[in-house]
Amino acid sequence: MNMWKSENVIIIGAGGHAKVIADIIIKSGDRLIGFIDDNLPKDSMVINYPVLGKTEDIYKFGDTASFIIGIGNNYTRKQIAERHDIKWHTAIHPSAVISIDVDIGEGTAIMANAVINPSTKISRHCIINSGAVVEHDNTIADYVHVSPNASTGGTVNIGALTHIGIGAVVKNNISVSSECIVGAGAVVVKDIVDKGVYVGVPAKKVNLSFGKL
Predict the structure, then answer these.
(1) 109 to each of 26, 88, 99, 124, how far by Cα in Å?
(2) Long-range contacts: 124-133, Cβ < 8 Å, 24+?
(3) Distance of CA 136 to the CA centre of its chain
(4) 1: pLDDT confidence band, cut at 50, 70 and 90?
């Protein structure tokens, strides 16, 4: 995110998650132009901002705005990001605490009251949701969602496309595989090496077919 010059920003998606990102953009001093959404008619209004068109219209605005994907589904963000060669916006709420030596990738959204501590890398198109704590020396891969009030200890690695549920805790010095769901309130105390769904205290894999988030 440019700290010195405001940007014109368009949000891809117009649901609840997109509204939260809209609030971040406005409070950060950037200019929200509107939304792109395939399921809403053009010129309809979402929180007093227009729907500008569908995803097929993105390149009409490519020279005048940057974009951020306002969709919570990790796989959908990946599909959209890989399909479009456009300028991506990184949204960081003014109340978020971003420590020294933190690297935040393009297209990522850092929500209100999130804390990211030193020497952590947040990769592309991630969501660090409201009140989440990502401790020091973490590596968070592309398209990860760390849900509200979830916490990761120091030196944690989270693989791509993994979803850490609301209030979940990942112990320090733990690695979590890509394409996992860690359920709400779960506590991860040992490495997760296989993709799947993990719930409970301590977190254990449940016998469910793994589905896309």
Answers:
(1) 13, 11, 16, 9
(2) 124/81, 124/88, 125/69, 125/77, 125/78, 125/81, 125/88, 127/17, 127/72, 128/96, 130/20
(3) 18
(4) very low
Which class would CATH give 8-83? alpha beta
173 Cα distance to chain centroid: 22
pLDDT, tens digit, for every residue of 140-164?
999 999 999 999 999 999 999 999 9
Q: What is the pLDDT of residues 15-70, one digit of tens each?
A: 999 999 999 999 999 999 999 999 999 999 999 999 999 999 999 986 889 999 99
Q: Does domain 92-200 have CATH number 3.40.50.720?
A: no
> How do the domains of the chain map onto residue ranges?
8-83, 92-200
Residue identified by tokens 């005048």 is 64
pLDDT digits (tens, 9 = 90+) for 158-200: 999 999 999 999 999 999 999 999 999 999 999 999 999 999 9
Catalytic residue, candidates 89, 125, 136, 163: 136
Q: Which of 149, 173, 175, 147 is nearest to 160 (CA)?
A: 175
Q: 17 an active-site residue?
A: no
State the Cα torsion 100-101-104-110 to the nearest 10°. -20
